Amino acid sequence: MDRRDRFVAWADRASPGVFLMPAVLVVLALSIFPLIISLYLSLTRFKFEKGGFSLTFIGWLNYKKLLFGSQQFHLLGTLKTISPSGWIIVGLVAVLLAVWLAAYLRRGASAIGAIGRLLVIAAVLTVTLMFASASAPGGQIGTFGVTLIYVFVGVLAQYLIGLGLALLCVQNLPGRGFFRLVFFLPMMITPVGVAYTFRMMTDTTKGPFAPLWQWVGLGDFAWAATAWGARIAVMIGDAWQWIPFMFVVLLAALEGQSREQIEAAHVDGASGWQIFRFITWPAIIPVTLTLILIRVIEGFKIVDLPNVLTNGGPGIASESLTLHAFTAWRTLDLGGSAAIAYILLFVVTFFCTAFVNLTRSAGGAR
Amino acid sequence: MKSWMKLSLAAAVLTCGTVAAAVPAAAQMKYDGVTVNIVTFTGPQIAEPLQRRAPDFQKLTGATVNVITVPFSDLYQKLLTDFATGTNSYDATVFAPQWMVDYIEPGYLEDITARVKGDAAIKWDDIGAFFRDFSASYNGKVYTIPLDGDFQMVYYRSDLLEQAGMAPPKTWDDYIAIAKAFQGKDLDGDGTGDYGSCIAKKRSAQSYWMILSVASAFIQSQGTSQGVFFDTETMAPLVNNDAFKAALTAYVETTKYAPPDEINLDVGDTRGLFTSGRCALTLDWGDIGTLAIDPATSKVADKVGAATLPGSSKVLDRASGKLVDCTAEICPYAVDGINHAPFAAFGGWSGAINANKDQKVRDAAYDFLSYMSQPEQANVDVTIGKTGFNPYRTSQFESMDLWLKAGMSEAAAKNYLGAIKDSLNSPNMVLDLRVPQNQRYEQVVLDTAVARLLAGEIDVDQAAAEIESGWNEVTEELGKDAQLAAYRAALGVQ
After folding, report:
1. A225 chain-B contacts, CB cut-off 8 A
2. Domain hosting residue B229, numbered range
3. For residue B450, what is the nearest residue in chain A, using CA coordinates?
4. Is the pTM of this model over 0.80?
5. Torsion of CA A169, A174, A175, A179, to 10 degrees
6. Of A45, A78, A222, the CB nearest to B261
């Protein structure tokens, strides 16, 4: 092989890397670099000064303040001594997790799988303890707990309603084309628009439904003035906007099912529930998992609805993690804001990794 | 050529010449081609008069004035970010003068002392001394032009109180008693129950001044230099004591006799409720007086009274942290044993110029702000409710014609201006906080704790402790000695 051939062979080997390098650099510049900078920002105190700004390295102080210091009430909540009923709930959760781990070990566990599950158990127990402590008398749920409620309660409700609507629309009902369009519409509206609409609708004194509220005796009740009223209002607004997304994807999945299987089940005398349980449900599980993953990631970032609808209030009762970070950023606490964003990033990454691995191994087990 | 023809020709040439000479002169104005970007908060108040008068100013000078608005809660950091990063997209601002210290020290705002001295049209001496000193000046130099005068006062429905045989509130207990008496009664004749009190209590808005208005009389009794925020010797916050807790308790109590969503109401909402006749009492700046006479929106014209902030017969003993009865020694400015401490909340919207812009743009910005403040404009704007501008010039207090022309009855005008003058002239007037990063003390720590208290998340003791620890944290971070020196300087403590 002469020198020219060697060069050509080298060029062949190197060319994929050379051609990919610009794209890799762009990705690094646009995503990895800001990630590193914001990590550094979360370890500093930001201050405007003459001619620019200064960043003073303060180590873990921003995280310490949020997790154990003066801002703990805001992030984790006002934590009090857990009541006996709280301990019972924590105990029940611990038992369920132990049963789940034992079942996994009996199936034949891998070391990595067992470590992963132990981490998940530790995380679930920590969150349960946090909720039990924040729900004790004098306690208060912080932005982390509120975000988890928005994500898990909200996404579950959205999925169930979206699935119900999709199941209705695959039936041969009159006007289903019209309803498909109607159910789809909310997703096209900007979240801020949705938030303002719900702000008007939940206004019991001046809103369009004020006479109705007064007629049912709720004229002196304000959704946004009670903690759970405000959180529920946010979840209703979020559900109204995102149910269409669930609906459209699940409708496509349902319509893509094999008609032969369902017709055969009918012929064999299967009930509607049996057809759903043994044919439809297994067919839509992959779509369901993807849908839930996408919505959970999106749900963790909820900001526009609580910001416009309740302003995070009353107090901080309906404030999400992202709104918490935005509030800190707005008051020039850039280090604190970046620390909250990093905690959020950690939680989302942990959840997604656990979710993907657990559902994959559950799929394998099936 | 006949003589008349010669004469006509000469006249025509002369006319053409004159027109030719006059056209370029008319088109050439002082600020042709100059654009001034001025930022203020999303009103409509404050932004409205700037937007309305900008075209008039353009006709006079040729300068184009763009009024940019941002939410109130974003204004402080938008300005700081813009100035500090050197973006300098804003040429001027109409903002809260208590923030000026954060912009002046790094050199972002232009010292306009010389400009003001050389500007006869602004009639500087006509501006109230308090506004010239507190809202416009820092370390003896002038940095802003006042456009507004701000004192919080209590407004009441004079017709309702008269019918009920009740006197305007002199103490916060009186305020609560009146609110309780009218809560649920039909005050506007529409057959539905209305509210005893409407106070803007929304978080991340302008509500933190309201609690300070309630607290001021409980904390300050010995004159302006005593201050209500910190001990002037130790910089210890004056919040975790019986006086501030009494104020918090009274503030929470008012929420019982109010609209159900009061904790989510901003000043625009409470003003709408009060002027539409749905509230017996409210706590606000001077705006209510002029909004009440706006025939387009008000149902309470000539049914509104204004009073200086209610006081307290017990005040803070700073040594023990307890409430003690007023005596001639403890409360030298008390009236009938009741200590009043009118709160100059905010200080009044004022205009300032970005020091890092071109000379021509700064000149145009100054001329526009001066134009807005000149009596020809300002004395009309302060009588219009939607402007958000309240009286701040001596001529505005003295000229009754202005107010009668605006639609106020003589009795109402005397009552309204009298309440402002009482506040302005009080030797026990409370100055708003003007130390570096005062926004963090008030708009972040105080605002969050009070919002949590109103929401029932924490009790009065926890709220007081939370404010104290939050303020101490900010003070330690910024340097206690420097903050104390700034606080003492703002109060004029030697």
Report:
1. 260-264, 455
2. 153-345+427-491
3. A315
4. yes
5. -20
6. A222
